[in-house]
Model the fold of this input.
Amino acid sequence: MQLPPSVTPRAFERLAEIAAADQGHALRVAVEGGGCSGFQYDIRLDAPAQDDLVLEGQGQKVVVDSVSLPFLAGAVIDFSEELIGARFVIENPNATASCGCGTSFSI
Done:
């Protein structure tokens, strides 16, 4: 049995700040083909769908579609704020390699 992805409290806190202006949407984390390493993350605000895995915390939702779920098994969704910018990041134990920007990976 695969572990579902998890979301850090810091990511839920940032999502709460963003969602205050966009009620009814969740943070969608998906995997699609492309990028410099073969797969890339698609992270955006979106309405939850019926077959999504819904991760909830602090009154917020993060959703993962059923196709992306095997690629994100055991992954940790976090939020990083650095001098060069702020973004949601994914620590994915399934990725064997990733690009420098962190949005593309291979398995």
In short: The helical segments are 9-19. The chain has one domain: 6-106. The first helix runs from residue 9 to 19.
